[in-house]
Automatic annotation (TrEMBL):
Record's catalysed reaction(s): Dipeptidase E catalyzes the hydrolysis of dipeptides Asp-|-Xaa. It does not act on peptides with N-terminal Glu, Asn or Gln, nor does it cleave isoaspartyl peptides
InterPro entries on file: Class_I_gatase-like (IPR029062), Peptidase_S51 (IPR005320)
Gene Ontology cellular component list: cytoplasm
Protein name: dipeptidase E
EC number: 3.4.13.21
């Protein structure tokens, strides 16, 4: 089995709470006591210094030191030495381009999938953990060399998933319609719509939905299905199972 350990969070801030407040107990449980320092990757936001300050303050309050990769003179070496990685939210295209520009795709994959260090992502950081960023909500403000992402799991995630509001008069596509359009293309993987307040815990070959809301699963050619926290999504970690349910 794979040694991978992932905590893929839909959103960094939940209405009425502070930064990572809604999931801080999940973070502590996930990182445990062996991890002393976390490597933070703030590439999804323009002001990396301010972003790192916010993240550092939060992680220090939870008992962990935090190093921001943008302060390192050698980002690749920082990944190689890291005990755990956290990639925060922002613009997914900006984030993925920076990961490619700094030659970090292969290095992060190796550390997580081979060495088994914990990987946390929120929002854009969750998007880049998947097969591709095709199902992000973000505008392509920059142009990464590829939409292929880290591939730490063999499916895609749509963070901040929104259900249709039947009271609204807005006639643009719903999130569900946009994901269906993605699945009209051949050989497209499953998409897990994570609502705000929800996260996916992956431990080796086991995946479990956690949090306070729920998720909507989209499989190509199938009707979407609803899932509550506690759902076992381990079947999504096997390509053939996930694509041929």
């Amino acid at each position: 089995g794979s040694p991978r350990r992932l905590l893929l969070i839909s959103n960094s801030t939940l209405h009425g709470g502070g930064y990572l407040g809604h999931c801080q107990q999940h973070i502590q449980s996930f990182l445990g006591q062996k991890v002393k320092r976390v490597l933070f990757i703030p590439y999804a936001l323009h002001d990396r210094d301010a972003y790192a300050r916010t993240a550092r303050e939060k992680f220090e309050s939870l008992g962990y030191g935090l190093d921001s990769i943008h302060e390192s003179c050698d980002p690749v070496e920082a990944v190689r030495k890291s005990e755990a990685i956290f990639i925060g939210g922002g613009n997914t295209f900006r984030l993925l381009k920076a990961l490619y520009d700094n030659s970090l795709i292969h290095e992060i994959r190796k550390r997580v999938l081979e060495d088994g260090i914990p990987y946390m992502g929120s929002s854009a950081g969750t998007n880049v953990a998947t097969v591709s960023i095709n199902t992000t909500n973000d505008m392509p403000i920059v142009y990464p060399p590829s939409l292929q992402a880290l591939g730490l799991v063999p499916f895609n995630i749509n963070p901040h998933y929104l259900d249709p509001d039947i009271k609204r008069t807005h006639m643009g596509e719903t999130r569900e319609e946009r994901i269906r359009q993605y699945h009209e293309e051949p050989n497209t993987p499953p998409v897990l719509g994570l609502r705000e307040g929800t996260m996916l815990l992956v431990e080796g070959d086991k995946a479990t939905l956690q949090g306070v809301t729920g998720a909507r699963l989209f499989l190509r050619g199938k009707k979407p299905t609803e899932h509550e926290p506690g759902t076992d999504f381990s079947f999504l970690l096997t390509d053939s199972n996930a694509l041929n349910l």
